[in-house]
Amino acid sequence: MSTINSISTGLERVIGDVVGSYSPSIRMHVSFNGIRIINGTTLKPSLAAEAPTIVFQGEPDNLYTLLIIDPDMPSPSDPTMKEYIHWIVTDIPGSGTVEQGKEILPYIMPMPHRGIHRYLVMMYEQLSPLGSVEAPEDRAHFDSKNFSESNELGDPKAIVLFCAKRESMPRRHHR
Fold first, then answer.
1. Pfam families under this entry (predicted)?
2. CA geometry: angle at 39 spanning 135 and 51, to 5°?
C-alpha cells in the first residue's frame, strides 16, 4: 500500500509537517522479523529490535537514501525531541539491497516513552553518490526536510508508516 489512498492510516498528518510533499513513485516493502508492515500497522517495539528487511524497486542505475524517524518523541502530545532519527543509510544501489548502502547512523529500535508513536521509513532517490555524510551528533531534533535539502534528495519516493507504543512490563507479585 504505497499509494496516497492509504493516507487514512496517519500518513496524512506527516505530509507537510515532516515531509514537504509526497507522491510515491517506487514500491517499498518493510518487514520486521517476517512481519510485513502495511501503513498504520502497530508493532511491539521488541519485534523491531533488529533492523527491518527492506525491499524496494528502484531504478537499477540510481542510488537511494533511507531514513527512519520518530516524529513523536518523547510523546505525541509533546514532541519536544521531534524528529528522533533511528537509521540513516545512503548510497543504496537501486538494483541492490539496503545492506549494500553506506550506513551513516546505525539502526536503533523504537523506544516510545508515552503514547502511540509513529515511525516513518522513508526512501529518497539521490541525484549522485553522497560520499561522506556526517552522522548527526544527537539523534533528537533531526530535521529530515533539512537533511533532504542539504543532500539534494527532494521528497521521499516511498514512505511506510508503522506505530508502536511502550510495552508493559510483567507485574511482579509481592509476598
1. PBP
2. 40
CA separation for the pair 107, 133 (Å, rounded)? 16
DSSP secondary structure of 126-148: -SS-----PPPS-STT--HHHHH
d(CA 47, CA 35): 9
- Tracing cell 507522491 back to the chain, one arrives at 23
Q: Which of 18, 20, 19, 25 is nearest to 4 (CA)?
A: 25
Residue 58 CB partners (closer than 8 Å, separation 6+): 26, 64, 92, 93, 94, 95, 123, 125, 157
What pLDDT does residue 18 have? 75
Main-chain phi, psi angles of 146, to 5 degrees = -65, -45
Across the chain, which has 175 residues, the per-10-residue mean pLDDT values are 39 67 88 92 94 94 97 92 96 93 97 92 95 93 94 93 83 58
pTM given for the model? 0.87
